[in-house]
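User: Round two. Same drill as before: sequence, then structure, for each protein.

Assistant: Same drill it is. First protein:
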Amino acid sequence: MKKIIISVSLSITAIAFTAILVFVILPAYYNKPAITFTVEYRAQENGSLEGNTSQNVELAKKATPVTAIPNYGYKFVKWSDGVTDNPRVDKDITMNIDVTAEFEMITKSFILKDANATSFLTKKEITLSYFDTTLPVPQRVNSVFDGWYLEKDYKTQSYNIRVSDKDGTIVIDNATLINNNSPNLYAKFSLIEEAKYNILMVYTTKVDAKFKLRPDSYQYGFGQDGIREIKYTMPEVDKQICHLLTAYLEDLLNAMFAGLVEFNVDEYFTVLPVTEDCFDYSLYSVVGYDYSLNAYNIPEISEDMLSNYQSVLTTVDLGDKDYAVLHLAAGCAHAKYGCIYWDRCIDIYKHSGNEILEWFTNPEDPAYEDSWLELLESYVHELTHTIEMQTCVLAKMPYTYHDVLSFYDSETSFKLFGNRFEHLGIAYLYLLRQMEYNGKVYGLPYDFWLGKRGEEIWESDR
């Protein structure tokens, strides 16, 4: 009987505990408040948010997505805690979050290709946004500004995709402007007064000449007879090089002047051999004679033909392997006429004709660029002399192209008879009157390109 009572008592106790567990303890445990965190999303000005921007998220759960929407002309950069995800979805949350979407204005920098403007803002780069409405207006001698463009073909001097009108007002959609791949803006001008310059390249295909040397030439290892005989026939590969040289010189000059002057470069290959009677010479005190072949000495070239050109450059190969036997440098020039020594200006004996042709047929190859540009420089250098000496006699000129080269030499490591590639850049500045030295502008007066001659065109430089 006692056992029964004890058993019943234990059963009642178990039932009571179970009831307490089920109806009191477990509900209290499971119904306690969950741990939650506040997640706040904000936006700077110039943007907004899409989604639930104020959320309560339980421990270890994730928030719903929020997207940062930039205003027109702006872009989303990042959230204030450094996160760059957009849309943003915060996961496994263990703390409160309060972040702000950051935006910045969309801009693009352009290099201003001002086509040799002679009066312009000092800066050559401009940064534009979706909200800019105008561009600076450059001024150029003898020119009317026609607007800015996104594309330019230097060979044809044609322009595409107009950006602004004549007063600088932007006429293109700013988004289209900024999203275009071009890093440049090109100024387009039209000339008020026509400026053209015609150049003739004369290539000597045959030389049959005997040149008299100084009586003491044997002291320099030139032979005791005092005569050097030259027999030369231009190889076919050299003719191909000359054709390319003519085309490249015209392209180079027109690209340099960007419409300020229109250059036309023609070529003429001689048919008959040139003899010693076709050469001018002068005696230098150092060694030997300096023989130069200029087109006006060549019988088959008429005066009528020459009268159609403002400058004439004659190319000749004298096989002058020894230094300064028949000529002293890569070329020489007088007013209008110049002579280029093929054997000196490119050191022809160290390069085969096929090598040189390779330079010109692959101008974009960095391995060849310096080589063919140096060859072009020899022609530009002598061309510059034929131009400046047409203005007036040297004694009346306030300075010469060589003087300008010496200015540059005093400021840099440049040497007058050194790097011809650097010469090309100085010729560019001199011919365009853009050389600055000690606060003064130097260079050929633009009046020359309008056909004016005489020392008065240098008046502003005196």
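Second protein:
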Amino acid sequence: MDHFILGSLPPRGIFGKESTVCDECDRIKPEDISIEEVKRIGSKDWSEIDPKVCFLSDEEIYERVQKEIVDPVAFEKFCIGRDVMEMPRITSAICGFCSWAHHLASVKAVDNLLGKNVPEPAEKLRELGYCAHILHSHLAHMYLLALPDFLQLKEKNVFHLMKENPSLVRDILEKRRYSYFIQEMVGGKAIHPVFAIPGGVSKSISEKERTKIEEMSRELVDFSKKSIEVFMEATLKFRENDPYYHETHYMSLVKNGKLNFYSGKIRVVNTEGKKIHEFSPEEYSDYIGEVVKDWSYTKFPYLREMGWKGLTWGKESGIFRVGPLARMNVCERMETEGAEVDEEGRVTFVNLIVPTTENNPSICISVKKGAEELLSNGKRIDRNILNKIEVAFRAYDPCLACSTHNLDQSIRVEIFHGSELVKTL
């Protein structure tokens, strides 16, 4: 369950409705205000959520917000006792959006555990499939989920985008289909692949498939160049008034300093862009710690050297971010999960290292900063304002199915005035 804690907000009504003030507590009556679910999250289908909330008096302002994940963790426990050779197949099923990432991260961990040297053709096939996955996933997030936010459309969804620019949407869907087909040709199936096995892959591609992949890849490169123009214009306009900005450290894979999605070392840069760490995946836990909170099943990673200082940002904080922005900030240039097993090869410990988990502290900070800016000082509360708060969450392309491994996607909202719990929804 996603859990957002909201502090005190001014009673301005919502969605253009006049609000009724309670004579006894001078608060907006709950039946007059509705906050809808967080929408357009890649791994979710939010539904059947229409909670009522109670706002505090006009003099009181927003106090705190934090994103709480209260799903029970299960997937890591499913893996305990399994034969290590099963792990690449099992982890592929964690999430439909992120299955390639889990599949390949798992098989690479088993490669390392067993001392397997993967032949170069097999490595190239793995990397090819993963690059197609990166395109398939990012096209969905960038265009179908995030672009309506950046364009600030009246109706922030892909259907309205289709009305505004039908040729663009048709082009998006065609290019996503190309990346889907490449995954399918390489991995046997595009979703939940199982083609990578310890030491190699279970299938090759034919010459006919290679030719088709090359043709589609050229078109995908051209479309990616076009996408740069689309998002440069959209994001620059959006950043003119950016309530979500905060500085953190960044972490990403690099190979000889160059951007890489599949292999290399993990590099961390500080808030000024200076390299502070570079280590192999096997050393991850030496540099990255994790904090567990009793209100969230998504963990809070941090840089051990800096220590955990809570949900604070800046150069003294241990919080870091991963993902597209991190890759750009970490790499020097571009070129165009932890497990233990026993002596019987059974898994004894699993720690799934998921980007949404690593971004979790920053997501909380972004939501908090956005809410403080957008919902304070007596600003009118309407659908547009609330959607802008959702932007802070959605921009990270979070996948809570991966970070919490649970299917229940209901939302609970708690409203606080100081330390006093006013209402639970």
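The chain is about 40% helix and 15% strand.

User: Perfect.
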